[in-house]
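Table 4 source record.
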Amino acid sequence: TSIIMMIGKWLGILLCVSMMVVMAQSQNQTFILTSFWNLTNGPSWGAGYSAWGTSTPVCRWLGISCNSNNQVTIVYLPRVSRLGPTIPAILGDLATLQSLNLASTNLTGTIPPELFRNTVFTHINLGYTSISGTLPSEMASLTRLQYLGLYNMKISGTIPDWIGNMTSLNNIEIANNPRISGSLPNSFYNLVNLEQISMYNNNLTGTISHLIGNMRGLKTIHISYNFLSGTIPSEIGNNPVLQFINIGNNYFTGTLPSSLGNCSQLQSLFIQNRPDAPNIQGTLPEEFGNLKSLTTLAITGQSISGTVPSSWANLTNLQYFTLSSNRLTGTIPNAIRSLTSLVQIDFRSNMFQGNIPDFFEEIPSLKYIFLSDNQLNGTLPTSIVRSDRSLFISENNLSGTVPPSYGDFEIVLFDTNNLCPPFPSWCSRTTPILNDSCEKQTCATPPTSSTTTLSSSSSSSSSSTATITTTAGSTTNMIMTTTATGT
């Protein structure tokens, strides 16, 4: 009996201590969050935050979430426009805080190192703020971090080597920060759990390492609008679950890696170069025909030559197909007639020859056809005309006349060809674009004309000669020359 009483006594003491600890934690959480509220203009946040700074339990404050022990785990305050001016360091004393979202607020200053006294963070989002400075090295301790959002800010410096310590990361967004420069450290490729890399519109230089092949869980690579150079590593094709690649507007050279054809789940591929950049050369890989999930393909501003491979007829889910500003030759490929999901095709500024194919008629979803600045010849097909479709065929070698039905296009632009009159009446009644299209022609076959000379003589010794030039289908021009002699 005495033993049972002793056990009961100790259990009572433990329960009492536990309750005191919980109470102390609750009071501490209330103090920390009230201080945070006061230091960030809390009274002006808005009516929805009226519980903050009151005796209402913190777990019921708007933007706060707790676990089953009433410990604060989430501070979610995005788009609180008056929250500022800086992140209070005291927030780092919330030992159980896992997720912090202060995006789209009025924050300035720098990221306080004290924030990372808490090492259990899994999600941090500070995007769309005016926070500046470099990333504090104390962030290296965040080995549990899964999401890091530092986009559209004013931060500066380089991507630090300690980034490789964050091995739990699956999504990193350090984008639209033009003061972020330097190259990606090799440790970056230790982040083998990454699924998304969004590091576009920075000032990054250097190359993409072949080590990217170790990141086999990657679904998104978005690193456009940087100053990256070198070749696109073939190891990028080792990522079997890749769905989105945008590496455009950099300085890549070499050839297109055929290994990308292994990425069977790829849906979007963008490879454009900056206008002043050296170009990717070579040909279009046959292996890209394996990318049957592709909906968007844009390979522009390069020096790609040769023809479009016949295997690309397999890209039946393709909706947006852009190969503009390359050196592609041959005719518009027959393989396109298999791409029955197309909405837009853009083959501008290449060296395609031959006729405009009439198989565009077989693709009912096709709304935009860009074929300007090529070497296309022949006449204008009427079968492709549709009221919800736009056709751009300027700067080619097309000849013949303009079918009246071309006025049924939503937009049609065909200036600088060899088209001849008569031009349809809508040329003169619609926009300047259409007027230019009709007027800026060099007729390949001059229109037929007839000349009649009328002469008359009279006793007054005066004579007149009228020359009438009639152009079929156009206006009649009369030039009258009169010579008179008399006293």
